[in-house]
Amino acid sequence: MAEIAEGGGGGHDKGKKRAKKSSTRVDMTPMVDLAFLLLTFFVLTSTFSKPKVMSLVYPAKPDPAQEIEPQKINNAITFLLTEDKIFYYSGQYYPANAPGPKGPTVLEETDFSAKGVRKLLADRNAFVLKGKEGLDKKLKAKQIQDSTYLRMLVDFKKDPESLKVLIKTDDKATCKNFIDLIDELKIAEIGVIAPVDILASELDLVNQKIK
Amino acid sequence: MPKIKMPKSSPSIDMTPMVDLAFLLVTFFMLAASFRSSEPVEVDVPSSISDKIIPENVLLVTIDKGGRVFFNLSDPEARRELLMNMAGKYKVAFSEEQINKFTFMSSFGCTMQELPGYIEMPADDRKNLNTTGIPLDSTNNQLKDWVYYGNIAALNSGKTAFEEAKLKGDTPDPNDFKPKFTLKVDNKAVYVHAQNVINVFRDLNLNNLNFITSMEMAPL
Lengths: 211, 220
Fold this sequence. Notes:
The complex is a heterodimer of chains A (about 210) and B (about 220). Chain A is about 40% helix and about 15% strand.
């Protein structure tokens, strides 16, 4: 209880009759109850963390009127996503009927653990990551400005030596896998990420691997 | 040992500071709270390390785990313009009241023909509604129209907002007022469903997409 009424609090005088001194205090309990009720309501219903977004630029759809020569991609890695597995191969794709200098492309399996995709990407993209480390140090020592830092980082990512990543998915791949992979690519500071359509022969390779 | 004499005082506690604090907190939460608008579907989004917060002027396409597609546009003014354009294109009539209701609605996932009935529905019924989402197959690609007209409407309202900001004497960046295209995909949704939606955007030459994710700590 907030207040216990002190009946005749001032009644120490003998004999003298006085008007009952009523306490000037108001019982605050209901108000406090209400205040805390409201407080609880707002605490529980409010959402503070605005959702975050991860941006991804898709390659523009090729203009059918324009003939585009197939570009030769060097220093690329292609990830193939399926239901719960992730495969990759490096460089150009060589189907079984047209093998490259090292024979047809063989898929390798990896996973989403720290030793899987993350290590693979960190090794392959060491050029950019090392460059970023150097820039980070310079930024900390206040040798370069924020804007210069960002510009130089973009330059590093655009460098021919940086790793390019292609992502192909089959019809069982989940969005979680896809976003997780994009996330890993962002952690590894990959500049060029291209989600592209899977080839029929690649799909066969994946299906063979799953079996 | 002498007896400890308890001072005879009233057992009441002065609650005023506590009440002050309680009301201060109530006021703070009231002002700071942004309420979750009730969405017709629950979507469990993947996590990423990205710390970019969701932009203001946003065109949102939600894909639930069954692959159903829902559409939302954040700006109420743009929504009105969008609905007018869509009503004209699909020859579906809307009453003034329905248009007003639509401007304050959250995501919706139904065909254009079902939309008047959908707007009239109470929010709780929408959750339980058995819809197939917005159709986006090649014969009946309604999503493409929603995105196309939504983009135009949001660009217009963004332009107005930009002019207003300019009049106030700020030097705003026009890019901040352009609509951003975001996808909210469920963890369990099959990527092919998302890909179909992404292809709708790419067909309209809107290649810069954002995925809504929950925050995750970046590895050190």
